[in-house]
Input
Amino acid sequence: MNGSCGEKRRFTVYNLYVVECSNRDEVQSALSSSRIDSGVHYPVPLHRQQSFSGYGVDGSLPVTEQIADRILSLPLYAELFENEQDRIVGEFLRVARP
Output
């Protein structure tokens, strides 16, 4: 993208805000009860997905597998007001455990 003076401008478009906690299911349930959407984008690590089976990763990747069970995506989009962000973060922090 070129700016008005011809300089290149680069913008990052963040589309996921991923957090980690030991009680993901409990957190997701509490968020849902508070009418806050959340998601688990990669419940199965890539190395365990059939579509990636030909990429030479055999066996276990224990850290990846542990993190896959602990990560949760919180809402993130351009129209999210600051007070909504505060409510989401507050509810997450109220329930989440390290």
